[in-house]
Amino acid sequence: CFMNSILQCLSHCWPLRDRMLSGDSLQYNRQSKMKGKLSIAFADLIKAMWLRNRTSTAVSPHSFKMQIQRFSPRFVGYE
Q1: pLDDT tens track for 16-60
Q2: Residue 14 burial (CB < 10 Å; 0-12/13-18/19+)?
Q3: 3-state class of 73 per DSSP?
Q4: Which burial class, exposed, middle or buried, applies to 42 when counting CB atoms under 10 A from its CB (0-12, 13-18, 19+)?
């Protein structure tokens, strides 16, 4: 529930959304523990929300949530 609300808000922040949709400007710190995996998962989610064929209105944030859990174990198990 909280994740859905947050993702809806973030996906409607046009500068952030447009940057994620462009794909060519994803920059991340290669020295970081995450190596951009969370940013890439978020960009993939935004693309699924905004660029997909509209035959279905549901989008699953499963891959994004898995990346969050991977780097922040306190979120493991919250469905």
Answers
A1: 999 889 876 566 666 777 778 888 899 999 999 888 766 667 888
A2: exposed
A3: helix
A4: buried
Distance CA 47, CA 35 (A): 20
Alpha helices in 1-79, H assignment, sequence order? 2-11, 14-22, 37-50, 62-71
Taking residue 65's Cβ as centre, other Cβ atoms within 10 Å add up to: 18
Phi, psi for residue 20 in degrees, rounded to 5: -70, -35
The tally of domains found in the chain comes to: 1
Question: Tokens 């493991």 appear where?
Answer: 76
- Residues spanned by the domain of 48: 1-75
